[in-house]
C-alpha cells in the first residue's frame, strides 16, 4: 500500500525559503500571494494491507526519523479506497 | 551482426540525427562492411563527436608543446601529471560543461565538478583543489542572474559536499555569452609519482568491473549535445541533463583511493561523456586489446533499457576498472563497505573488437580500431586574420582625474569583488589552504610538508577576439604572472578551448591562431600542456561567443612561508612597478577595460605579449620574493596600473601616494594594459631597483604606502580606500539582490 | 594526566569530510593521534573525548545529521555521554548531536539562503562549568572560520532562555573590526556553540580545526582546542 507523508514546518517557525518564494511570486505580478511555506512530501510503499496498522507504523517512522518534531509537523495520507 | 529483431535498419537519416555527416556515415559502412545497428551507430556517433574525437581541433592541438623534464603524463590520459619533487606528482585537468549548464545551471555546474574530480582521482590522486572559469552574459540580460546563481550554487553544492576546497577561478561577463554561458571546472590532485594509474586495459581474460551508481537514462547523447549549437529547441533538451550526487561521488572517491592503495587495479577510467562507451572503447584500444561486456549485468536503475541506452547513458559517479583476477574479492569488500555497486560485467579480450551481449544475443560487435584511428580529423579552412590598428591613447582619453576614472572602473562588473560568489564555496576544507579565492593565485600546502602548490585560471577573451595569436599567448602569460606574484614558478598548463562553430572560417582562425599563440608562450615559459578539453559550437542562432581559450596553470613554491599576497605590510613601503621604467609615461589602451567601458570599445590591437620579458620579469619577481626583497606583489592586468594599485591598497586597508610621470598621457599610463608587469611593495626600493637593473628587468618606484586610508595620484584630490572597497564590494550583491 | 595520555576518538560517517582535519589538529596539539571509529561499529573503545567532525554525512539527506544520528555508533556515544564522557560536535557534528537530543534545538538553513564560508569572530560566553569553556576567559574573542549551509541555530523561546540562564551558551558571534558584522547565518541570539546542562557535551558551528596556525589564517582554533584538551586532562 502507498502511504504519503507531508512534512511541514510548525506554525511560528521562520521559513526564509517560503518568504523568498513569496516575494518572487509577488514580484512576478501575483499580488494576491500572502504567506508561503515550504514542506516535504515522502511517498512510502508499505508491505501492509491494514490501513490503520500502516498509519500507526508510519506515525512511528515520522516520530523516529522522518520529521524533526522540534520544528516540523507531519500529516499521513492513505488512499483507503485502493487495493494494494 | 544483424540488428535486433524489432529495430529498423539504420540509415543515413538516423546517423544525421546522431550528429554524423554523410562522409562519416559512409566510412562506418566501409569499415564494418555492413550497416551498423542502432547501438553500434550510437557508439560511432559518440566516439566521433567533436567532444570525444576533437576532430576540428586535433590538428592544432598537436602543435602544442607537451614535453619537459617535469612531465610524467601528457595529454591523452584522464588527466595530466607533473613531477613536483619529493616523489610527488600533481595531477590536473580542466573541463567544460557549457551546454548542460545553460540548460540546467545547478546540475550542469555540479556534474561538471563531479566529472573533473573523477578524471583526477581515477589516476590515483587525491584531489586537493578546485577552480572554475565562468563566463556569463551581460549583467542586465534576463537570464544572467538566474544562471549565475544556479552555477555558483551547483559548484558549491558538489565541491563543498565532496570536501575539496575551491581556491580560485575567474568570472567575466559579456553580451556574447547571453545564450552560451561557459562553465569550466579544474581539479588538481596529488599522488606518489610511482603510483599513478592509467586507463589502458591489460591482460586478456582479466575481469572488467563496473563500480559506483546505477545506470539510468541521464544525459543520453550529451556528448553530441555538447557539440551542437543552441536554438529554440533547446528548452526541450532538459531531460538530457545529468544529475549529480556528490555524496555518492565522495563514497566513490574514498573507495577508489582505498582500492588503489593496494595492488589490485590494472587500469581504471571514469565514465564521463558517452559513459560506458567512451570508457570501454578507450581502455581497450589504448591497450591494443578488445573487450567483451554483458549488458544484462550492468546495474540499472530503470527498467527495460536498450543496449543503446546502456552504452550512451551519462549517469554520474561510475567507474570502469580492470582488476587482477585474484584481487576481485578484496576489491568487492571495499566497495561493499562504502555501499557502492561492484559488478564484474565483462573481460578484456585479444580480439581488438568491442563485443556486447544482451538478452542472450549479440547487441554489438565492432572493431575498435576504426573508432579511434578513423575518428575524423578535419583541417577546416581559416579566414585570414586582419591585424587591427594600435590605438593612440590621445584618441580616447580625457583630462578627468585618474581617481575619478578609477572609481568608475573598480565597481565595474569585470573588476568588482567576487566575494558574493566565492564565499559560497568551501575554500578551507582539508585545512591546507594558505591563499584562497580573492588573490592572484590559489596556494595549497602540500599536506605534511612545507611546500606549496599554486593554481590559477586565466583568459582575456576580448584580446583573443582582437588578435587570436596574441590572446592565446596572453592567457598563458597571465597565468605565469599570477603564479609569480605569489612567489611560485609555473610548471605546466591545462587548457579549455571554448569557441563558436569551427565550420565558420573566422571562428576556425580564432581556434587555430590562439592555439598557436598558446604554444608560443608555453614553449617560452617552459610550461607544457599536459591535459585539456575542447568545447566548440558555442553559438546561439548563429552568433558566436567571444573566443575563450582558458589556461589553467599549476606551479610550486618551495616554502609556503616565503609566499606573499597583494596586501602591503606597512606604511612607508615603496611601491615599485616591475616591467617598465621611469621614462614610461603612456600605456597600451587598445582593447583595455578603459577603452571598452568608457570609450565605446573601438576595434584595435590588443597589448602585445613579449614572451622573453614575461619570462625574465616573472623569474625576477619569484627570486625576489624568495629572497625577502618583495613583501607584497600583484600582477598588472585588467584596468592597468591604477587598478592594480587600488586593489593592493584595498587588500591591505592602507593608503598610498603615487607619483605620475610628467608629460605623456596620464590615463594611458594609469589604465594601459601593457603586459609583463607587476606592482610590488618593498622595504628597500634601492636594493630592489639595483637587483632589477642587474637582471635586465625594467623597474621604477612609483610611490609608497602611507597611513590615513587615502590613495592619491600625483597632486589630484585623494580618494578614500574605504570608498573604493565599498564600490568594489557592492556591485555583485546589488546585481543578485534584484530578486 | 598529560595531554598525550588523553584518549580522543573521532567518529567517521559516510560523507564526513573534516575528519582528517580534526585528526591532524588534535595530533598536533595533544601530541597523540586520535583513534578513528567507523559509524557501523556499535561500541567505543574506552575514550575520554569523542569528536563528531564536520562534513556532509549521508549527503545531508532528509535533514542535516538526521541519518548519521541514527547510526549504530551513536548509541555508544550516547552511553559514553550518559556516563559523563565528553563529546564535541563541530558543524555537521553539532547537527548530529542536536538530532540525537544530546543538545536542545535545531540548526536550519542560513538566513541568507546561501552556503557561507568565511571567518567569524567568536566570543566566549560560558557560565556553567564545562571543559569546553573553563580554560578560556569570558569575553575572549577568537577568529574562527565557518563553512555551512545550515548553521542557523533555532530553539523555542523557553529553551533559548533556559540556555542563557543556565550559562549553556558557550560561544556567540560578535562583531569586530577584522571581520565586520559577525553572525553569518541568522542564528538566534548569535549562538555559535552550546553545551549540555552538565557542560560535558558541546556543539559548535565554527571550525576550530581550520584555525590552528597563522599561515592558515588564524591560530585561535588551536587556543580553543588546547584549552579543551587541557581541561579534560586536568
Individual helix count of chain B = 25
Poorly predicted segments of chain A: none
Approximate helicity band of chain B = 25-40%
How would you sum up the global shape of chain B?
globular
Average pLDDT score of chain B: 94
CA-based gyration radius of chain A: 16 Å
State the separation between the terminal residues of chain A, measured CA to CA: 5 Å
Percent range for β-strand residues of chain A: 25-35%
* Proportion of beta-strand residues of chain B: 15-25%
What global shape of chain A is seen? elongated
What is the averaged pLDDT score of chain A? Answer: 88
Largest sheet of chain B: 7 strands, mixed
Task: Report the span from N to C terminus of chain B.
Answer: 58 Å
Low-confidence stretches of chain B: none
Structural class of chain B: alpha+beta
H/E topology pattern of chain A: EHEHE
Query: Largest inter-chain interface?
Result: B-C, 29 and 29 residues
Radius of gyration of chain B: 26 Å
Describe this structure in words.
The complex is a heterotrimer of chains A (84), B (739) and C (234). Chain A contains 2 helices and 3 strands, in the order βαβαβ. Chain A is of the alpha+beta class and 84 residues long. Chain A has a 3-stranded antiparallel sheet with strand order 2-1-3, covered by helices on one side. The termini of chain A are close together. Chain B is α+β, with helices and mostly antiparallel strands and 739 residues long. In chain B, a hairpin with a 2-residue loop joins strand 2 and strand 3. Chain B starts with 11 loop residues before the first helix and ends with a helix. The mean pLDDT of chain B is 94. Chain C has one domain: Class I glutamine amidotransferase (GATase) domain (Rossmann fold), CATH 3.40.50.880. Helix content of chain C is 24%, strand content 24%. Chain C contains 5 helices and 11 strands. Chain C has a 9-stranded mixed sheet, sandwiched between helices. In chain C, helix 2 links the parallel strand 3 and strand 4. In chain C, helix 1 packs across helix 5. Chain C is globular and about 45 Å long. The termini of chain C are close together. The mean pLDDT of chain C is 96. Chains in contact: A-C, B-C.
Amino acid at each position: 500500500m502507498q502511504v504519503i507523508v507531508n512534512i511541514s514546518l510548525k506554525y511560528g517557525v521562520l521559513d526564509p525559503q517560503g518568504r523568498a518564494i513569496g516575494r518572487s511570486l509577488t514580484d512576478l505580478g501575483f499580488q494576491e500571494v500572502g504567506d508561503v511555506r515550504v514542506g516535504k512530501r515522502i511517498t512510502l510503499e508499505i508491505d501492509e494491507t491494514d490501513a490503520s496498522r500502516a498509519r500507526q507504523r508510519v506515525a512511528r517512522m515520522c516520530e523516529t526519523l522522518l520529521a524533526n518534531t522540534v520544528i516540523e509537523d507531519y500529516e499521513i495520507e492513505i488512499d483507503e479506497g485502493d487495493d494494494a | 551482426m544483424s540488428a535486433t529483431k524489432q529495430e529498423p535498419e539504420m540509415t543515413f537519416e538516423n546517423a544525421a540525427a546522431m550528429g554524423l555527416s554523410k562522409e562519416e556515415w559512409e566510412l562506418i559502412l566501409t569499415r564494418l562492411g555492413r550497416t551498423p545497428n542502432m547501438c553500434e551507430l550510437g557508439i560511432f556517433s559518440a566516439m566521433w563527436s567533436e567532444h570525444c574525437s576533437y576532430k576540428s581541433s586535433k590538428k592544432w592541438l598537436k602543435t602544442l608543446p607537451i614535453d619537459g623534464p617535469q612531465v610524467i603524463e601528457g595529454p591523452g590520459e584522464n588527466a595530466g601529471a607533473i613531477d613536483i619533487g619529493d616523489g610527488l606528482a600533481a595531477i590536473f585537468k580542466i573541463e567544460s560543461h557549457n551546454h548542460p549548464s545553460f540548460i540546467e545551471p545547478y546540475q550542469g555546474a555540479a556534474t561538471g565538478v563531479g566529472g573533473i574530480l573523477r578524471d583526477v582521482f581515477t589516476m590515483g590522486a587525491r584531489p586537493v583543489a578546485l577552480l572554475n572559469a565562468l563566463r556569463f552574459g551581460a549583467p542586465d540580460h534576463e537570464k544572467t542572474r538566474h544562471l549565475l546563481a544556479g552555477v555558483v550554487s551547483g559548484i558549491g553544492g558538489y565541491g563543498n559536499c565532496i570536501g575539496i576546497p575551491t581556491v580560485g577561478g575567474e568570472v567575466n561577463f559579456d553580451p556574447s555569452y547571453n545564450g552560451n554561458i561557459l562553465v569550466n571546472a579544474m581539479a588538481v590532485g596529488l599522488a606518489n609519482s610511482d603510483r599513478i594509474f592509467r586507463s589502458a586495459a591489460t591482460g586478456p581474460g582479466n575481469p572488467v568491473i563496473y563500480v559506483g551508481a546505477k545506470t539510468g537514462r541521464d544525459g543520453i547523447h550529451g556528448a553530441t549535445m555538447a557539440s551542437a549549437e543552441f536554438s529554440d529547441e533547446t528548452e526541450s533538451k532538459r531531460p538530457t541533463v545529468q544529475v549529480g550526487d556528490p555524496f555518492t561521488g565522495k563514497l566513490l572517491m574514498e573507495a577508489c583511493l582505498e582500492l588503489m592503495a593496494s595492488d589490485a587495479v590494472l587500469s581504471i577510467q571514469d565514465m564521463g561523456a558517452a559513459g560506458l562507451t567512451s570508457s570501454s572503447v578507450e581502455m581497450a584500444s589504448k591497450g591494443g586489446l578488445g573487450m567483451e561486456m554483458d549488458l544484462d549485468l550492468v546495474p540499472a536503475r530503470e527498467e527495460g533499457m536498450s543496449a543503446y541506452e546502456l552504452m550512451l547513458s551519462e549517469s554520474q559517479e561510475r567507474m570502469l576498472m580492470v582488476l587482477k583476477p585474484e584481487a576481485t574479492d578484496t576489491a568487492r569488500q571495499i566497495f561493499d563497505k562504502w555501499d557502492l555497486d561492484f559488478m564484474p560485467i565483462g573481460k578484456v579480450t585479444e580480439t581488438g573488437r568491442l563485443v556486447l551481449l544482451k538478452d542472450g544475443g549479440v547487441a554489438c560487435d565492432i572493431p575498435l580500431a576504426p573508432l579511434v584511428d578513423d575518428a575524423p580529423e578535419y583541417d577546416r579552412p581559416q579566414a585570414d586574420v586582419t591585424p587591427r590598428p594600435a590605438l593612440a591613447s590621445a584618441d580616447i582619453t580625457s583630462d578627468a582625474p585618474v581617481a575619478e576614472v578609477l572609481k568608475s572602473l573598480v565597481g565595474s562588473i569585470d573588476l568588482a569583488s567576487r566575494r558574493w560568489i566565492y564565499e559560497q564555496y568551501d575554500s578551507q576544507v582539508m585545512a591546507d589552504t594558505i591563499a584562497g579565492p580573492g588573490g592572484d593565485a590559489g596556494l595549497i600546502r602540500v599536506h605534511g610538508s612545507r611546500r606549496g602548490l599554486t593554481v590559477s585560471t586565466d583568459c582575456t577573451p576580448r584580446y583573443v577576439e582582437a588578435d587570436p595569436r596574441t590572446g592565446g599567448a596572453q592567457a598563458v602569460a597571465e597565468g605565469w604572472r599570477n603564479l609569480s606574484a605569489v612567489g611560485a614558478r609555473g610548471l605546466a598548463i591545462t587548457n579549455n578551448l571554448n569557441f563558436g562553430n569551427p565550420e565558420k572560417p573566422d571562428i576556425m582562425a580564432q581556434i587555430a591562431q590562439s592555439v598557436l599563440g598558446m604554444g608560443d608562450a608555453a614553449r617560452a615559459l617552459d610550461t607544457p600542456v599536459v591535459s585539456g578539453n575542447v568545447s566548440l559550437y558555442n553559438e546561439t542562432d548563429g552568433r558566436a561567443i567571444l573566443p575563450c581559450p582558458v589556461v589553467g596553470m599549476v606551479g610550486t613554491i618551495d616554502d609556503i612561508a616565503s609566499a606573499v599576497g597583494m596586501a602591503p605590510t606597512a606604511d612607508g613601503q615603496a611601491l615599485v612597478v616591475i616591467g617598465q621604467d621611469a621614462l614610461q609615461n603612456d600605456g597600451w589602451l587598445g582593447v583595455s577595460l578603459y577603452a571598452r567601458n568608457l570609450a565605446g570599445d573601438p576595434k584595435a590591437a590588443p597589448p602585445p605579449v613579449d614572451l622573453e620579458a614575461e619570462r625574465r620579469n616573472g623569474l625576477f619577481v619569484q627570486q625576489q620574493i624568495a629572497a625577502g626583497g618583495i613583501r607584497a606583489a600583484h600582477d598588472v592586468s585588467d584596468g592597468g596600473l591604477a587598478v592594480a594599485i587600488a586593489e593592493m591598497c584595498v587588500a591591505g586597508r592602507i593608503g598610498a601616494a603615487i607619483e605620475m610621470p610628467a608629460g605623456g598621457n596620464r590615463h594611458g599610463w594609469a589604465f594601459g594594459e601593457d603586459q609583463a608587469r607587476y606592482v610590488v611593495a618593498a622595504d628597500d626600493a634601492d636594493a630592489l631597483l639595483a637587483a632589477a637593473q642587474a637582471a635586465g628587468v625594467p623597474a621604477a618606484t612609483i610611490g609608497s604606502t602611507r597611513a590615513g586610508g587615502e590613495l592619491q595620484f600625483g597632486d589630484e584630490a585623494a580618494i578614500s580606500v574605504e570608498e573604493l572597497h565599498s564600490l568594489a564590494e557592492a556591485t555583485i550583491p546589488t546585481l543578485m539582490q534584484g530578486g | 594526566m598529560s595531554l598525550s595520555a588523553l584518549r580522543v576518538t573521532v567518529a567517521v560517517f559516510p560523507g564526513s569530510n573534516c575528519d582528517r582535519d580534526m585528526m591532524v589538529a588534535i595530533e598536533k596539539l595533544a601530541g597523540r593521534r586520535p583513534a578513528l571509529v567507523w559509524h557501523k561499529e556499535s561500541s567505543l573503545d574506552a575514550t575520554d573525548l569523542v569528536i563528531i567532525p564536520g562534513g556532509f554525512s549521508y549527503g545531508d539527506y532528509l535533514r542535516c545529521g538526521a541519518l548519521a544520528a541514527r547510526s549504530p555508533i551513536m548509541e555508544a556515544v550516547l552511553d559514553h555521554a550518559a556516563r559523563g564522557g565528553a563529546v564535541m560536535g563541530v558543524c555537521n557534528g553539532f547537527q548530529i548531536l542536536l538530532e540525537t537530543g544530546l543538545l536542545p534545538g535545531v540548526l536550519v538553513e542560513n538566513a541568507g539562503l546561501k552556503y557561507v564560508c568565511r571567518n567569524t569572530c567568536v566570543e566566549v560566553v560560558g557560565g556553567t562549568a564545562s571543559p569546553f569553556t573553563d580554560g578560556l576567559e569570558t569575553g575572549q574573542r577568537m577568529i574562527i572560520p565557518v563553512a555551512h549551509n545550515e548553521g542557523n541555530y533555532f530553539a523555542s523561546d523557553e529553551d533559548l532562555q533556559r540556555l542563557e540562564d543556565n550559562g549553556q551558551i558557550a560561544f556567540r558571534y560578535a562583531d569586530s573590526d577584522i571581520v565586520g558584522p559577525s553572525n553569518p547565518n541568522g542564528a538566534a541570539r548569535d549562538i555559535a556553540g552550546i553545551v549540555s546542562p552538565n557542560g560535558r557535551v558541546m556543539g559548535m558551528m565554527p571550525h576550530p580545526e581550520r584555525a590552528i596556525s597563522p599561515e592558515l589564517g588564524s591560530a585561535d582554533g588551536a587556543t580553543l582546542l588546547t584549552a579543551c584538551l587541557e581541561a579534560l586532562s586536568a
